[in-house]
Amino acid sequence: MKNMKSLKMSIVALAMLGVVGCSSNSEKPGADQEGEVTSKAPQDTTSEEVTEQPAQDPDLSKISLPDGFEISYFAQKVENARSMVLGPDGTLYVGSRDKGNVYALPDKNKDGRADEVITIATGLKMPNGVALRNGALYVAEISRISRYDNIAANLKNPPKPVVVYDKFPTEEHHGWKYIAFGPDDKLYVPVGAPCNICDRKESVYAAIHRMNPDGSGLEVFASGVRNTVGFDWHPETKELWFTDNGRDLMGDNLPPDELNRAPRKGMHFGYPFCHAGEILDPEFGKGKNCAAYTPPVQKLNPHGGTLGMEFYTGNMFPENYKNQIFIAEHGSWNRTEKIGYRVSLYRENAQGKGSFVPFAAGWLQEGKEWGRPVDVEMMPDGSLLVSDDMNNAIYRITYAGRK
């Protein structure tokens, strides 16, 4: 769970992977009594019952997993399901990108399947990112962060959102955002490069920012980050780790996507000058030295569409999964031979040596994809959820022991 880590650990203790967008709304909202502003974005709430267990989708039999693991549907008909965050009551909140919706998926009977799909917001500008703090749901659009207070008690009658911050750039390219609260109680918000490859001088681009929960104190935390759509904090060191998507048009195999670690503020990860710690950009790398930038912890699949990631801290999976990273690979869009379309695992041994291996694969069959993993989210029982914006689904991966 990628809201505050303290919340994640308390829940666990109790229960136990280039494209389009839209510009921001140009309406000028009115100010409330605390100086924040209330959004006038269109609001609608709909609910679709999913309590009836459908027949097993034959596609799920195509997913290969390690021995002892099983996959099922947590929810279907979640249109364009993207980033996820879990509430303390077990309600899963899901953003979308192209659809413009935000969803709530309660599981009140704790049977490992959502009771219903509730659409709590519509008509938003690529509301990919969702985060939780003190009962409030934060939603990230292209240029705006909004807050829905006391959301769990008002799923079918959500309050008008309060605008927390609305001064991010409006460019569509890499404008959608993944957001999460860090262990420092600050909201981390990336702004991608508004291009495939360019050197924009404004520090807001190609960076991970952080701000106070009320939107004040915005600052750059990490720069040289082309487009991250997933990050998490190490459960022990509390250091930020994040994925980053490499540039296009350098061939099928260059550059690789990246898994990065940012233990402190002010680090530069190379874009647009150096890629993956060692590849000088053919245009912007002239006169640069890759040694001046922070290299990735792990090189990932080139053009694999590496998106959501999370450290596994649950108790359901075998012990050797503890504190390792699950990564969703959305899949390539312009590679000659398609790659990705899976959930992978980054592991480190006792000596700190890392490996990157497939965990759940099969959404790509004979060069044709039927699903595209976006994000991963651990449940209190230790099971792992995977969102899919192509198959409009949330999967649940469990471990029943080796057979």
TrEMBL record:
The organism's place on the tree of life at top rank: Bacteria
Keywords assigned: Signal
Domain DUF7133: 60-394
InterPro entries xref list: 6-blade_b-propeller_TolB-like, DUF7133, Quinoprot_gluc/sorb_DH_b-prop
Keyword NADP: no
Residues spanning the signal sequence: 1-24
SUPFAM superfamilies for this protein: Soluble quinoprotein glucose dehydrogenase
Region (Disordered): 24-61
Any Pfam family hit: DUF7133
Keyword Signal: yes
Protein name per UniProt: Glucose/arabinose dehydrogenase
Organism, as annotated: Rufibacter quisquiliarum
Species classification: Bacteria, Pseudomonadati, Bacteroidota, Cytophagia, Cytophagales
